[in-house]
Write a structure and sequence with these properties.
347 residues; single chain; two-stranded antiparallel sheet; globular
Length: 347
């Protein structure tokens, strides 16, 4: 078998058996790598790095050269979508993303969804470059933030522990807030379609703050938008694998997985892999879920946890990953140790 369908990650997402668990890691390109820090310093601002195809390609390839992961994920950010919509977005050292907050319904009307693909052409050029430069066995993952998660930044103006600004708007004026969600659904569909047209073989939808929503709002603002995005993608690309990451969803991940028609569901660190095997693995490929801090610690405890995850989930479709992204203090040698452990694991 040759081409896309021969790639381990694609086979796993299609529910097929693989000779070993494919592995990639969220934030595998990032500050823990000295070669990334060098390019980041050359780029100027973080958004300049995202929007300079030669540099974004380079940092995407860095962890592939070091570790030979089974997939590369496009180097970009979920907040390029609000930036392309016309909201002012900046990344400040030590603060993270800072946006001019959307606090009134009239501001939603001022956002321009028609220009998203045009404004994000540098991102798609990075995808095209990666499609040509990646090893033939390495899958290319595109991504976007889920509408709820992106909306929390747009409304709050920055990340927050409780997403209070967005939740209060959704509670007080759900119809108004729905307008923002609907705009983000359309923009996200356009953004992901453009990535696939440029060469992405898989896409992941990051709903990082899904777990902050009560059930009724989870269904309205997490499940329904994701379902609409996946449906639109599959109308255009029927065989496209889509991974959902409803971080913190708990038992609601069952309904999320079933109702959105995703191919794979990424498990956060708090999910019991035994429960996931019984509740989710018959519905979709599972991805996860080593604690990123175990990767910082390394050693026997990390290897033991790796064995538990693989031993529990290897009986069904499975991709090894973390329960969230690599943290900056991670020693690169521990990542190499992790890859070696996953690839050499024998039950």
């Amino acid at each position: 078998m040759t081409g896309t369908k021969a790639k381990r990650l694609i086979r796993a997402l299609n529910g097929e058996a693989t000779d070993r668990a494919p592995i990639w890691l969220m934030r595998q390109a990032g500050r823990y790598l000295p070669e990334y820090r060098k390019v980041r310093a050359e780029a100027g601002s973080f958004l300049d790095l995202c929007y300079t195809p030669t540099l974004a390609e380079e940092v995407t390839l860095q962890p592939i050269r070091r570790y030979g992961f089974d997939a590369a994920i496009l180097f970009s950010d979920i907040l390029v979508v609000p930036d392309a919509l016309g909201q002012k977005v900046a990344f400040r050292e030590g603060e993270g993303p800072v946006l001019d907050p959307i606090t009134r319904a009239e501001q939603i009307d001022e956002l321009d969804g028609s220009a998203v693909v045009e404004r994000l052409q540098p991102v798609y050029e990075t995808v095209r470059r990666l499609k040509a430069s990646l090893p033939t066995e390495t899958a290319l993952i595109g991504f976007a933030g889920a509408p709820w998660t992106v909306a929390t930044y747009m409304v709050g103006g920055r990340g927050s522990a409780d997403q209070a600004a967005a939740k209060l708007w959704a509670y007080r004026a759900p119809g108004e807030f729905q307008k923002l969600i609907d705009l983000l659904v359309r923009a996200t569909i356009s953004h992901l379609i453009a990535q696939v047209e440029a060469g992405a073989e898989v896409v992941q939808i990051f709903d990082t703050w899904a777990g902050s929503l009560p059930e009724e709002q989870f269904r309205r603002f997490s499940i329904e938008p994701t379902r609409a995005i996946v449906k639109a993608l599959h109308q255009r690309f029927p065989d496209l694998p889509v991974i959902g990451f409803p971080r913190g969803a708990g038992a609601l991940a069952i309904d999320y997985t079933r109702e959105t028609s995703i191919s794979g569901v990424s498990l956060d660190t708090g999910v019991s892999v035994g429960w996931a095997r019984e509740a989710l693995q018959t519905l979709a490929c599972l991805q996860g879920n080593l604690d990123p801090l175990l990767l910082v610690a390394g050693g026997d405890e990390m290897r033991r946890a790796v064995g538990n995850i693989i031993g529990t989930l290897e009986g069904g479709p499975f991709i090894f990953n973390l329960g969230h992204g690599i943290v900056p203090q991670t020693p690169p040698d521990h990542v190499a140790e992790l890859v070696e452990t996953v690839r050499g694991w024998k039950g």
